[in-house]
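ASSEMBLY PREDICTION REQUEST
Request ID: AP-0331
Submitted by: J.K., bench scientist
Number of chains: two
Total residues: 572
Priority: normal
Notes: Please return the full assembly, not individual chains.
Input sequences:
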Amino acid sequence: MKQEELENYMNTYGRELYSFCCFVTGNRQEADDLYQDTFLKVYELGDRLIIRKNPKGFLLSVAMNLYRNHRRKLSTRLRIVGTRVSAEETLGNIPSGEPLTEERAIAEETGRILRREVERLPDKYRLPILLFYMEELSLADIAGILELPEGTVKSRIHRAKKILRQRLEDGGK
Amino acid sequence: MRNRMDELLRAALAPTEVPSDQLNDRILHKAKENRQMSEKRSYRRSIPAAVIAAACILVLGSGTVLAAYHYLSPAEVAAEGEDSALEKAFLSDGAIYVNETQESGGYKVTLLGSVAGRNISDFIGEENGVPEDDRMYTVVAIERADGSPMPETSSDAYGDMAFYASHYIRGLDPNRYSIMSMGGGYSDHVRDGILYRLLEMDNLEMFADRGIYVGVCTGTFYDAEAYHYAESTGEMSRNENYGGVNALFQLPVDKSKADPEAAAKYLEEFERMMDGSAESEEPIKKDDTDLAVEDFMQLLTPENIDEYAEPIESTRQTCRIEDGMAFASYDLGDDGAGEVFGWIETLFPDGEPGMSESFSYSYSVGGDGRADLQIETYTLNEDGSVTFVLYGPKQEIRK
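STATUS: Completed
Returned structure:
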């Protein structure tokens, strides 16, 4: 892989990968590390791999593996309060054209609660939800990345939605 | 609100975090730095002509002359990687030399040698703070059968042909137990058109009584097509009909080094690690409720579902079909709501009308399990449409 290709990947998929890293690590410093390690790993593997299709899926699968290893290594380390990426920081994605201020406020509050509740989900549910809704990968791609049967991915997304819906109805308490 | 869940999730989770320019610049800089380091490490030191001449003289007259002369020795390959401890280990009495060549898929693969032991490398990694110091190292040479040179590791063409080289243990599924899962790694060096791969893994000598293989096949990952694995005997063999590279060697490990007790402990730890890696670090423990639900779901088939469960008629609907998926939604008030979908190909692999044998289900976390179990069913109709209906366990089953 050449430097230009790496740069091209960073320009094309950087935002999606970085958002994923922020969400799964919940920590800006760790997100930076995971993002960096992912691209360096892909660059290193690039000598041995030819990425013909779905580069985003491939990048995420590399990030996923690094994240798992990282979590195993740091499983006992506590997250540092204050450096965690705040769900409130990532606002501004409210759908549909210019709703009224009150509606917008409600939508923003809903988004804030949802992001916080997604963060609180165990990895088993959180990762499929992020890969499906944030990265918009197909169930087949998610199944490949998480090394799970497609049916399991689907049922986990469904179950996660059910949990999130319940928590949303409870006002995120 | 319930019917907008997908929309809300997509909006709430849309990727908005942007990496800083400094971070991207740092990555590009490091990538360049790593490449330069790698090229430096791939550089072949030249062996003085006098040494080569002496080696030729010493080996003349032997049937293995050409192999010894033609290839770098494992110790030289270790030296290529600037690993003097490993170089010494390959020169020790404990090292195994094989020099056996097999040809497949247009390549010749030669198993040169192997050595195993504790602290025999200058490069000891660690996992969870524990040094990975008990390792097995093996060197194979890979060359094109037509004699054309293998590309240098620094060239773009290097990645055009990937090889998966690993030790395997007789009696253990090679698809599961290989370099990928057993703390493995490798480095490649190209010299005089021949690719030398130095692979390392956890020390498998404890399995010496079973038998250790060394395999080199085409691909970045293990290719189950390359080999046959007989579960009954534990034997691996080459698939003669395989089109790519599928070399397979027996590594003549000293059987006295077998340690069945340590091997059993290793496998126990391996399984624990593998189970952990498939999920999060906090595996979801199945409680009695989960197990009761699973048992119940295993009973269900399209033929007997009406014996154990009943349809919730308010959820019955014709699915919206889009991009090969069947979509439905339902709202049961306090009993939950959902937007559901299923891949038509997965639900109805034969394309035959009738209820899909594949059921998805859900129940409340911390709930009563079967009491609020909801079973999604999809039925393919004669006209190609798909009907969705949710089932709940019958009253007598709920208790």
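REVIEWER COMMENTS: Chain B has three domains: 22-70, 72-122+130-278, 288-398.
SIGN-OFF: pending second reviewer
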